[in-house]
Design a protein that fits this description.
Layout (H helix, E strand, L loop, with lengths): L2 H5 L3 H9 L2 H16 L14 E6 L5 H15 L4 E6 L2 H9 L5 H4 L5 E5 L4 E4 L4 E6 L13 E5 L7 H11 L7 E6 L5 H8 L5 E6 L10 H7 L6 H6 L11
Parallel strand pairs: 1-7, 1-8, 2-5, 2-6, 6-7
Antiparallel strand pairs: 3-4, 4-5
C-alpha cells in the first residue's frame, strides 16, 4: 500500500486519487513517503514570504537529499518550469547533485523522467519542466538562461562565490516568485554572512548538525567525529556553525 493510500481513509478520496494519471500518483506517493521519513530541518519551510531557503548544516546532515526532494517537487507542481542546479564544479554536479546517492536521479520517481542528458547535466520531466546543472566555476554560462527555481549546493565552497551568485540572481526571472535553495556547510564568507543577516526578511534558515541525521550515518563515521571535538573544525563541519578557522 502506497503512502497516499495509507493516509487517505475517505473512499471518495481514494476514488479521485485513482483517477489521476500514473505519473501524478507516483509523484504524490513519493512526496508523502519522503515527508513521513524526513527530519524537520529537511522539510521545506511554510509560508510564501521567503525567496531563499538556507539550509546551513554539518556534514552528513541530509542537505543534498533535502534540496533534491524540494527542487523536483517544485518542478513537478509547476509544469513547464525551469530549474537550475549550481554546484562548485562539474564533478560536484554529476556525482553529488544529479547522480549521487541522495541526488536528483535517486529522488525523482523514474516515471516522471522523460530524459536525462548526463553530459549536459540536464533532466527533462514528463510535465515539460526541466532541471539544468551549471558549474559555479563556469558562471559566465549563466548569462542568457532564465529560471523559476535554483539550488546552490555548497555555496560557501564556490571559488567565485559572489560572481556566480550574482549571475544566478539575474537569471531568476520566471514565474511570480522565484525561489532558491542554498545547502552549505557554513564558512564566514561575506555572502554567507549577508544571507544570515537577511534572515526573517527574504531568507529563512534551517540549521542542523551531523548528529541530527545520525540514524543514517555509519557508526564508524560517528566515532571518527569524536577526535575533532573541541576544535573549530568540529564546530564548522559537524555542528554547522559559522566560525573563522584562521582566527587566532
Amino acid at each position: 500500500m502506497g503512502a497516499v493510500d495509507s493516509l487517505l481513509d475517505d473512499d471518495s478520496l481514494h476514488t479521485e486519487f485513482a483517477k489521476l494519471p500514473a505519473a501524478a500518483r507516483a509523484a504524490f506517493n513519493w512526496q508523502l513517503g519522503w515527508l513521513q521519513q524526513a527530519h524537520k530541518h529537511q522539510i521545506e519551510p511554510p509560508g510564501d514570504w521567503w525567496n531563499i531557503w538556507l539550509l546551513m548544516a554539518g556534514r552528513g546532515a541530509g542537505k543534498t537529499r533535502s534540496a533534491a526532494e524540494a527542487l523536483w517537487w517544485w518542478c513537478w507542481t509547476t509544469p513547464g518550469s525551469r530549474a537550475l542546479v549550481l554546484a562548485p564544479t562539474s564533478n560536484d554536479l554529476k556525482f553529488t547533485c544529479f547522480e549521487g546517492q541522495s541526488g536528483l536521479i535517486a529522488c525523482i520517481p523514474p516515471s516522471l523522467i522523460l530524459d536525462y542528458n548526463k553530459q549536459d547535466h540536464h533532466i527533462k520531466l514528463v510535465n515539460g519542466s526541466s532541471i539544468r546543472g551549471i558549474s559555479a566555476d563556469s558562471y559566465e554560462r549563466l548569462r542568457g538562461p532564465q529560471f523559476h527555481f535554483a539550488w546552490c549546493d555548497e555555496l560557501a565552497a564556490f571559488h567565485y562565490i559572489q560572481e556566480a551568485w550574482d549571475m544566478m540572481q539575474f537569471g531568476l526571472r520566471l514565474g511570480a516568485s522565484p525561489k532558491v535553495i542554498v545547502t552549505t556547510t557554513p564558512r564566514p564568507k561575506d555572502l554567507i554572512l549577508e544571507l544570515v543577516g537577511r534572515e526573517g526578511d527574504d531568507v529563512i534558515i534551517d540549521r542542523a548538525s551531523t548528529y541530527d541525521n545520525k540514524a543514517n550515518l555509519a557508526a564508524t563515521f560517528q566515532k571518527q567525529l569524536e577526535q575533532y571535538k573541541g576544535s573549530k573544525l568540529y564546530l564548522q563541519e559537524v555542528l554547522g556553525e559559522i566560525v573563522d578557522l584562521e582566527d587566532g
